[in-house]
Amino acid sequence: MYKFLKYSAVAAVGAALLAGAPAKAQSAADFFKGKTLTIVYGFGSGGTYGRFSLLFAEYMSKHIPGNPQVIAQSMPGAGGLKAANYAYNVMPKDGTGLYVPVDTLIVSELLRPKAVKFKSDKFTWLGNAVQANAVIVVRSDAGINKLEDLKSKQVIIASTGKGSQTFLMPALMNAVYGAKFKIVSGYKGSRNLQLAIEQGEAQGSSLTWLAWSTAKPQWFKPGGFAKPIVQIGFAKDKELPNVPLASEVVTDPGDKQIVNFMASMGPIGRGLTVPPGVPADRVAVLRKAFSDMIADPTFGPAAKKRKLAVNALSGEEVQKIVNESMKVDEGLLKRARAGIMGAK
What we know:
By secondary structure, this protein is an alpha/beta fold. It contains 14 helices and eleven strands. It has two domains: 34-131 and 267-334, D-Maltodextrin-Binding Protein, domain 2, CATH 3.40.190.150; 134-265, D-Maltodextrin-Binding Protein, domain 2 (3-Layer(aba) Sandwich). The chain has helices at residues 2-20, 28-31, 48-63, 81-89, 105-111, 165-177, 190-199, 209-215, 246-249, 253-262, 280-295, 299-305, 315-325, 330-341, and strands spanning 36-41, 69-74, 97-99, 124-128, 134-139, 155-159, 181-185, 204-208, 226-232, 271-274, 313-314.
């Protein structure tokens, strides 16, 4: 009995020592094994945000160590801002929550600071899959034969909400060009917008050229149902060499600054971010996974099959653009808020 107690005591002491010893730190790569990651996006599944999100879910799993399950979750509302607010404030900050940022993220924060609950530059960008200009499209029977016609003829524009470019870009043209767009909000996603245009509820809207050209290519054949009339970006889309940039038709220097500020949304959307607080080593793993996904020789063809284009930027490149885009003169912002949002 004594011997048993003796050895039991030794074993107990050994167990206590082992319990008190620091456990081997779990590597970031090991962390993801057996986990489920959720990609949240702020629109319906049929548009470019939804299609990219589903594609990311399929491919990120292949390139994250441990091959965790990755699912995509639609969270529409407020022109994409509902998902942004959720990602920043509620989403897990351990690397298992990923967010597909809306392209108007920065613009919405700076123009509508009371309506958002996030700081754009506090998100950490993993990368961006595509850069795309915003393009305002109108029905061919809307009576707009040249851009100047926008100043004399009202055109009804369908919008998902004030946080979306479907509102912001027509409102921008009203403010800096004198267009007479009447913006009707409340549509759920780009497919519903396009259906409203087809059915005559609306006469146009603003989406990226990628969204327009992949969803409704038949509209834009010679003499077709609709036509692009103006694009907002830093350079013309290569497919639209004859469609003017807003910066080309605006004459006032202050208004040109506002247009260029609004054009900053081009490189922002349709990528992946994580909320603030995710450990740096896990961010590094996820950024590498994003880069490896883009470099995967099957990713481009898979995107093309889904009618998506790939023109990627790294997480570091997008982060720099975001940080620079946040440095806007307050006087310019006040002018932009007054003109675009009607703020006093």
